[in-house]
Amino acid sequence: MPTIVEQLISRASQLSQMGQLDESLKKAFEAIDHDPRNTTALFLAANTAYKLGDAAKAVELVKRVVEIEPENADAWYNLGMFHNALNDPKASMEAHKQALTHNPEHVDALVNFGGILGRSGYFETAFRALKLATRLDPTSVVAANTFANVLKEAGLNNDALKAYERTINLNPNLHGAYSNVCYLQQFNAAHGLRDLHEIHQEWGKRFCDPCTYAWPAHQNEKDPDRPLRVGFISEDFRHHTVGHYLIDVFEHLPPDIEPYCYSLSTQADDVTDRFRARAHVYADVATATDDELFDRIMADQIDVLFDLSGHTSGNRLRMLCRKPAPVQLSWLGYVGTLGIKAIDYVIASHASVPEGSEYYFTEGVLRFPAPYPHQCYSPGCFGEVEIGPVPSEENGYVTYGSFSNISKLNPEVIVTWSKILMRDETSRLLLKSSAFKSEFTCKRIRDTFEVFGVGGERILLEPFTPPPAAFETYNKIDVVLDPWPFSGCTTTCEALWMGVPIVTKPGASEASRHTTSFLVGAGLIDSITSSVGEYVSTAVRLGADTKRRTHLRQQLRPLLLSSPVCDAEKYGHMLSDLIRQAWKEWCG
Known about the structure:
The protein has 588 residues and is of the alpha/beta class.
């Protein structure tokens, strides 16, 4: 005859399998009340709390398990997973180390450990863990996909693409791997607009087109002038580049726009509080399944729905493919086409998507009026950081710089930057990226520059630091060099905010035209170049002109603040106009 504790655990497990998580957790806690040292009950309660979105409670419970059973590798693995959910990579890594101490061949722990190491910039150790995981279980889709993700983080784009292909071969239905391929291909200088469109269309054909037959017949009232319920889906309603670009505009939306926020993240901060305060409804849906989120949006009768993620991490594109709102838009979280018929429009600017480029979009293109950029910069999220003097005056040499993601540093960019450095043999290049925590990456980048004639001692590498500390590093830079075909975005605005001029070379893709869009909006078109030769000469000329750089150091911030780039109030009304335009089109 089972004991009362065994009966309660059995019932809790049944309820969990039936999806009745709240009831399952109650039964698990009843079992714990009867036997506080029952690790099965504690473990079940921890995992159920985690599924319910309470990672802090899960940590508390599973810590009790490892206190009772310190050699329980599964418990340590779960503790690491829960710490990771709380955005505590240091504690997560320590827990995974313990799991692997007690079971060195724990594949799930190796995969998680490798992924966290990779996101933290410790690539060599991450590669070792993930190679072992894939060797132990060659059929593990999660291991293959995580390995690909870490290769992407390390800026090894070609290797990452091959790894995603292996992942897709293991599971052709893994839409996230296809999304990563779409995203990574935007860094490929060999791809034109047609190539990018075809790559993204393939995602749409595989994962969106099969849903179109089941799109709901929306019953929203077709009144073109009534107040609108406008939804925003994102995991970035917080201190994040998407949150920063959106918040000031969001707060200036006119009263006839009723914003609904669907938050896909459990993280929250003072920016989140601002979204909550302005939103008509703020819903925490991080733990919701696609079915649950779809039903929630339908029940809320959203008229226009914004996707703020695109093919980046944490997206809900599969759910959006089912068309929970009659009008769906893409903005801020992605660039270019998504290749998805369920998305009606992409929002851009005249500079980011020039006339004629819309042919290579599956969606329609709505543009802010010229010269407004594709998005609004909100410099106030971190307070005002003091601008220092021109660094070359103190150093005696010019320092060029880029704080772009390492994936953007392709061979053509490095060759071009090497030409600039060779034109001024005393100059330096300062690069800042999270990837430069890794000695492996630092050596790889310095070695590449040396191949093109620039000594490694002239390449200054710093790991990423979060704002506002990151802004201080701009006081070490004389001229920012923009990469291509994926140009800077936030880093461009930060440079201008800190009084540092930037040189760019736009191409055809929207990804290559971020900086151009901001420079046009700020009236700084002199440093927009059309060829590698012009790019090099413009950068060298700026580096040599201390008087001009001193003037720009003093004037760029006030110029930016008074320009269309930072006019959040105007953006609020312009965004409302674009929303209304899309809505009227649906109303007929």
